[in-house]
Amino acid sequence: MVAKDMGFFVVLFTQRKSQLENPEFSAADQIYYAENLLDETKVLKKLRLMQQSQKEICAILSFIDPFVSYAARLSDILGLKTMSVKALAIMENKIKIRNQLKELSSSPFYAVFDPEIPQEPLIEKYQRFLPLILKPPASNGSKDVSLVNTRQELEEVLVSLRRKYPGTPILAEEYLDGPQYLIEVLVKNGEIYPIGVIEQELAEEEAFIVVGYKYPAGLEDLPYRKLLETVEAIIKQLGLKEGSCHLEMRYVHGEWKLIEINPRMSGGAMNIIIQSGTGINLIREIINLHADQPLQLIKTQKSHVYARYLTIDAYGKLLAVIGEDTAREIDGVVYVYVKPLEGRILTSPYSMGNRYACIIAAADSPDEAKEIAITAAKEIKFYIEAF
User: Fold this and answer.
1) Is the model's pLDDT at 284 over the cut of 70?
2) Other beta carbons less than 10 A from residue 297's beta carbon
3) Burial 349-371 (b: 16+ CB within 10 A, else e)
4) Percent of the chain with pLDDT over 70
5) Which residues on adjacent β-strands are paired with residue 131?
6) Which residues neighbour 357 within 8 Å (Cβ) at sequence distance 6 or greater?
7) Whole-prediction pTM value?
8) Which of these ranges, 201-205, 341-345, 363-367, has the smallest mean pLDDT?
9) pLDDT-based confidence at 6, cuts 50/70/90?
10) Contact residues for 65 (Cβ-Cβ < 8 A; gap 6+)
11) Torsions phi, psi of 147, nearest 5?
């Protein structure tokens, strides 16, 4: 939440007591603990008490699933900026997204596996569509997303997901083979602003773990124009007129297909990637959007940017990390971040949360930016006590 009292300050609502004094949130001027953030009555009570204490609340927003549409609804209730609450809520559920977009050419084949239907009839019906992607409807960061190529894999993954998400429908989607791109978008007064198109590189051994981001994407004119047209059609079909989102698309046989869309900017270091390439601070502009302030979307710089994420092929306790300072000193490196602290348990990647370091480089050409980032990444070494 952004509030104002003789100047702007940021208030963070959290339901984790450990975050109350966490330096990771040093940008927050005040932190409020809420036992349950989704307890609308109690959260509204705290917000109204703030208003009564002479603080003007300018915006309520979240960059984290599943609080995006909830924050937008609170904003509406308090008479602040009206966001597209319904569209944002649809984007928080992958089954609702597919149902809303099923008439568009960008929508792949999909099916919803009802939890009440026995497993065997589902397998018999859909095994002819293999390979398929299976995922729970609220998955994010590629968590619990699986590619199944055989009947046996379909059986095993479906059993696993039904155990982990009892009573929850499972989404099955056509597997789309093609280069993957991420598109950051702002929408204000129904006007769509594509902020950046970023090419994604996936780990060879893990089909859905993104380890590389290249900005700007090296798309030719025709595919680029078709991409923007497809994005516009998707956003209009969802009814998003006020808000931000990012889409992941694949280019398949000359057609753009939607992998997923989320009602927030992409996580990780995306803001640094965009800012290093364009000069646009996307987080600031999202806050401006929610606070009903003018957007500043003019690109003030033009650089090629490459971000490299590091994963490990091991399972164990982190003893030490070396090479961060050396990586930072390499000319062209603009950002180095190592996520885990010593003593943490690390594992091979099964979601985007298992990416343990990020290096971002900027240069005059895409090849140079990538070479700098990869060179810097080689300096960072994890020492692990294997289990």
Assistant:
1) yes
2) 15
3) bebbebbbbbbbbbbeebeebbe
4) 93
5) none
6) 309, 310, 321, 336, 337, 338, 339, 377, 380
7) 0.91
8) 201-205
9) very low
10) 92, 138, 140, 262, 263, 264
11) -95, 125
Q: Which CATH number fits domain 109-174: 3.40.50.720, 3.30.1490.20, 3.40.190.150, 3.40.309.10?
A: 3.30.1490.20
CA-closest candidate to residue 32, choices 57, 10, 54: 10
Report the Cα 139 to chain-centroid distance in Å: 11
- Domain residue extents for the chain: 2-85, 109-174, 177-302, 306-387
Q: Contact at 8 Å (CB) between 90 and 96?
A: yes
What are the Cα distances from residue 78, in Å, to 74, 124, 188?
6, 51, 20
Same fold, 177-302 and 306-387: yes
Q: Does domain 306-387 have CATH number 3.20.130.10?
A: no
Of 350, 356, 371, 262, the closest CA to residue 312 belongs to 356
Q: Which two tokens stand for residue 259?
A: 């992998």
Ranges assigned E (strand) in the chain:
2-4, 8-14, 30-33, 56-59, 110-113, 132-135, 146-148, 170-174, 180-188, 191-202, 210-215, 243-252, 255-262, 304-310, 316-322, 333-338, 345-346, 357-363, 381-386
CATH superfamily for domain 177-302: ATP-grasp fold, B domain (3.30.470.20)
